[in-house]
Structures are given as C-alpha cells and as structure tokens.
Design a protein that fits this description.
The chain has 232 residues and is α+β, with helices and mostly antiparallel strands. It contains 13 helices and seven strands. The radius of gyration is 19 Å and the shape is globular.
Length: 232
C-alpha cells in the first residue's frame, strides 16, 4: 500500500504497513459503522479529499479488506463492503476508539471539532424509539458557526429511517435545539449530559415537552462514550 516498509517479518509490522497510512483507520471506522457508498464515506471523513478516499479504497480492495460490488438499479452506483478480513478488523478499530476515549486527554479531543462529522455520527446512532411515530424534524442551530455550517436538520420518518440535511428540507420543524458545537460534542462523547448543558444555559431546546424531556434518550451517544475517560 505504500513504498515505505518496516522491513520486518513481524505480523505487527506487516499489518501496520497495510493499515497505518494516513486516514486508513478512520476510513475503516466508517466502513465498520456501516457506510458503504462513496458519498456516505465522504460524509464520515469530510476533511479527506475525494482523490485520497478513492486511493485508499483501491488499496483496501487490493489488500482484500473491502470488495466493490454494484448496487442494484440504474446509475451504475457501487458499494464497498468489508470482506471477512475487513470484518475481522472491527474489534481492532473499536479497541483503538476505546483506548482513545480512555487515555487521550479531553482538551486535545475538543480542539478537533467537526460539525459535519458530529451530525453524521448523530444521524446514524439516533435512537428512534422515543421519537413520535409521525415524521419528526429536529433542527440543530450552532450560533457561533459560519452561516454555511450553522443549521442542520435530522428527520425521523414514520418507517424509523433517519436522514440528515444541511439545507432546509422545507418541513415544519418539531424541535429546535440551539447549542454551541463544543457543548454538543461533549454531550455526544459522554463528557456532559443534556440536563447539565440545559442547567448551565449551554443548550436550549424548544418544542413538545415530551421530545425535550427525552432528548438524552433519543440522541444516544458515541459508541465509545461508555468508556470512562481516565486522562485529564
């Protein structure tokens, strides 16, 4: 996958040559989380250039970690799915995430705020159980961000599918959530509760009382939030 080689037969060195190129483990995180199409993968790695994403996918395919297959229907769309070798990397990726949650200090983590990644993560982990059965539209407003990144909409459909929009979808909004990006990231990472953010005037939710009260339940948390942070 790279011209650089450790020149060692050790399996750790050989695996590192394959997996430790820039963005590769983060891309694997997206594949493990269930993203399969190129545009889905891009939303999970918004700071990765399309050219580099294509390159890394080709490398993973050549290594037998992912397989490319056509998606039924018109358009010639292809999906990237983990092979058995790729699926065997799931506990590895999860262990890296748990280690980072446990041992990487809080402040460096919160220096890397990314609203698109946060909202995409929230979309795919949202718990639809406490959400009303009819279409429910939740608008998140980040007042400190530039206008182009300030507003995001999560849409829960009656069939329990969840969509994320960066452009006003044109539906009536059921719940407005105004919060700064750092606070919302802290909540998502399990470093602060919704109630704590409300009490400290860091988060304002306006809408049906039941939807407001159940926010912590339907919001869910990062898959790594269950790991207690031991670093400062």
């Amino acid at each position: 996958m790279t011209n650089a080689s450790y020149g060692q037969f050790c399996p750790v060195a050989m695996a590192a040559e394959l997996l430790c190129t820039r963005w590769t483990v983060v891309l694997l995180r997206e594949l493990v989380a269930g993203s399969t199409r190129f545009n889905e993968l891009r939303r999970g790695v918004p700071r990765m250039s399309p050219a580099l994403l294509s390159k890394r996918l080709r490398e993973l395919e050549a290594a037998g970690v992912v397989a490319r297959e056509p998606v039924p229907g018109p358009g010639g769309i292809e999906a990237y799915r983990l092979t058995q070798a790729g699926r065997d990397l799931q506990p590895v990726v999860e262990a890296i995430g748990m280690w980072g949650q446990k041992w990487v200090e809080t402040e460096p983590s919160l220096d890397n705020l990314d609203v698109e990644l946060l909202m995409w993560d929230m979309r795919r982990n949202l718990n639809t159980e406490p959400v009303p059965q009819q279409r429910t539209v939740i608008e998140f407003i980040y007042p400190e961000l530039d206008e182009a990144e300030r507003k995001w909409w999560l849409i829960v459909e009656p069939d329990r599918s969840v969509d994320l929009c960066h452009v006003d979808p044109g539906f009536d909004v059921d719940l407005y959530v105004t919060v700064d990006l750092r606070t919302m990231t802290e909540i998502w990472m399990g470093l602060r509760s919704v109630d704590n953010a409300v009490e400290r005037d860091r988060l304002l939710a306006v809408g049906p009382p039941g939807l407001v009260r159940s926010m912590q339940a339907w919001l869910g948390l990062s898959p790594f939030a269950r790991q207690e942070k031991l670093a400062g």
